[in-house]
Amino acid sequence: MPISLPRGTLLQIEAKDPLASPAVNTLGWRNITEHNRSEFAVDSMRIEQSQRMSNGTLRKFHIADKKRFGLSWSMLPTYRTLTVDGYWGAEDLRTFYASDEGKGTFRIRINFAKDGTNQSSSGYEEYTVSFTDCSFVVVKRGIQAHWNVSMMMEEV
């Protein structure tokens, strides 16, 4: 039986549900599991052009600041039926990564729960991102495999 987390899930991806039938499969916000998730890294990348002038001064042109997101899970169950919260497991993430949606750009929502509450209807930070790196390693096989999953996404 899935549990409900007091502050909700940290990450949501706007995608079609890989387990839904094609007739009713529409885009929606899919919760990503918190099951054995490690820290969620948010790094900033500054895109700029700098040039040293002939008199020795430095001239910089700031173009944009973009974010890079990194997260991983250890011993993540294959299917959402065995994750602690019932949200997307390793197979859902793998299917999304291999899909046309995962090969292009997609939207994510991050719930930092800044005011300490579950921000299920508002308070999310939304970004348009694409995968820069993703790995799926089978750690344990049995009735259901468990995976170590790692992914990096970059704001477009």
How would you describe this structure in keywords?
elongated; mainly beta; 8% helix; seven-stranded antiparallel β-sheet
What does the secondary structure layout of this molecule look like, with pairings?
Elements lengths: L10 E5 L12 E4 L9 E12 L5 E20 L12 H9 L1 H4 L2 E5 L14 E16 L5 E10 L1
Antiparallel strand pairs: 1-2, 1-5, 3-4, 4-7, 5-6, 6-7
Q: Please, could you describe this protein's structure?
A:
It is elongated, with a radius of gyration of 19 Å. The chain has one domain (11-155). The longest helix has 9 residues, at 90-98. It is mostly beta strands and 156 residues long. Strand 6 (125-140) and strand 7 (146-155) form a beta hairpin. The protein has a seven-stranded antiparallel sheet with strand order 2-1-5-6-7-4-3. The chain has helices spanning 90-98, 100-103, and strands at residues 11-15, 28-31, 41-52, 58-77, 106-110, 125-140, 146-155. The mean pLDDT is 90. It has two helices and seven strands.
Q: Which oligomeric state applies?
A: single chain
Q: Which class of secondary structure composition applies to the elements?
A: mainly beta
Ends: how far apart? Answer: 37 Å
Radius of gyration: 19 Å
**Beta-sheet strand percentage?**
over 45%
Which term fits the overall shape?
elongated
Helices and strands, in order, run as EEEEHHEEE
Helix content: under 10%
Number of strands: 7
Main sheet overview? 7 strands, antiparallel
Strand order, biggest sheet?
2-1-5-6-7-4-3
Total count of domains: 1
Low-confidence stretches: none
Overall average residue pLDDT: 90
